Amino acid sequence: MTQFKSVLERCGFKTAEFTEGSLTVRSPIDGSILAQLQETPVDSMQAVINRSHAAFLTWRMVPAPVRGELVRLWGEELRAAKQDIGHIVSMEVGKIVEEGLGEVQEGVDICEFALGLSRQLHGKTIASERPGHRIMEQFHPLGPVAVITAFNFPSAVFAWNAALALVCGDPVIFKPSEKAPLSGLATFKALERAIAKFGDRAPEGLAQIVVGLTPLAEALVESPKIPLVSATGSTRMGRIVGPKVASRFGKRILELGGNNAMIVTPAADLDMAVRAVLFGAVGTAGQRCTSLRRVIVHRSVKDALLERVQKAYGNLRIGNPLTPGNLVGPLIDEGAFTAMQKSLETAQAEGGKLLRGGKRVLEKEYPKGFFVEPAIVDMPSQTAIVKHETFAPLLYVLTYDDLEEAIELNNDVPQGLSSCIFSTNMQEVELFISQAGSDCGMANVNIGPNGAEIGGAFGGEKETGGDRESGSDAWKQYMRRTTNTINFSKELPLAQGINFG
Ligand code: NAD
């Protein structure tokens, strides 16, 4: 614990900040208390929002490439603090060290992306049908952006949103998950250091963090002064947040649950598929929104694939995520363990055959840590439980005969985040990524459904929310578009040839 204290101090925490508050943060590894954080009072939220709005009026006038300089500095701070923030992520959510570090690297990457973007917030010039006229579009800053995050990416999701929002001219208010506020705070402190270096070009209140429970997020969701709410979490949360934001005509980015599948065809490289199954289904103990939940395998290769997958599962090292060599850390809490057990029971009641795993392990060593053996269940069909996202290392196996049938199974779930096919057959691959193929926001070929890069737009369809964040042109959601028609003639012709008197 003394060592962890010094990690927090290196990340800029003052002792009182992590010892004197009412919000207890525990490690899922052993249940030990990592911090007692001070909670933001709910009745201070209006002041937080007002500060953000005031900051917007100044920040929107700072040229975008200058705003880019701020995210460049933030990227440098994240790079310098990568080991420490990665360590906090591992301690707070139980990711193995490599994955904790990878998460901070995503923050560095998005800062670099946003720096380049700060000189490319382009609109189009469009031909007008009227003589002596020109049409163009401009993208202007939008206003304060609320970033509400899930426990499982406690650092990167804030960075994805904030780096884009800041270069787009928007202040940010960050509400981290109450299950993982420390990693969020450490990431936020790196931004504060960057802001200090950036100096007085950054207005007060440009970036704020609020720590506590759901009512803080509700205040952001309901405020008409927050034009964009970016919320990452469960579909349950999205069903509440989406309509509330819509009812006040706000914009939203919803990044919700996934139920991601892999199709393995007779033309697959099985060795590659096995490695992808392993990282996809058991990496982060199955607690990624893009974790592999369903393998849809052709009958002719099913036995060969399952034999290899089961062998690989047999060699998995489950244990303390900080110990090198361990690949599977704990579930986030007892609730996650209970949910996994219930899903396993239901799957078997629905005709599934448990091939392996599902049991709690290391209970003696870690009585308060919920470590589980990753489970594989062979299902006779895609029953109700298979269509439900269980946020744990639980992999369902489904069997198919025709590729069209496999694609139908891939699509026949309420969620639409990520998907993939393993095949070396060009026709199979092209069909899978075509308009008649996977209906997910991400459809990969010969790589698993998880572990996306920041350069592409990230997000999914249907109950996953329908929005995109991170790369490509996701930045447009953080800005408002104006269309300008400019008349440089001495006439006033109307469009569509209308003659008005
Ligand atoms: P969660 O929905 O319990 O909480 C997420 C956040 O929403 C928290 O900050 C929480 O305080 C807030 N929240 C909860 N109820 C709210 C309400 N009524 N109003 C406003 N805010 C509210 O999710 P979790 O358990 O932390 O995360 C796991 C879920 O997140 C999984 O379903 C996973 O698939 C999903 N997820 C999705 C993505 C994606 O990009 N699609 C990424 C990461 C996680």
TrEMBL record:
Provide the active-site residues from the annotation: 255
Entries under PROSITE patterns matching the protein: ALDEHYDE_DEHYDR_GLU
Keywords attached to this entry? NAD, Oxidoreductase
Supply the enzyme class, top level.
oxidoreductase
A Pfam family matched in the record: Aldedh
Q: Which InterPro entries match?
A: Ald_DH/histidinol_DH, Ald_DH_C, Ald_DH_CS_GLU, Ald_DH_N, Aldehyde_DH_dom, ALDH7A1-like
Q: How does it assemble?
A: Homotetramer.
Its family remark reads: Belongs to the aldehyde dehydrogenase family.
Protein name stated in the entry: aldehyde dehydrogenase (NAD(+))
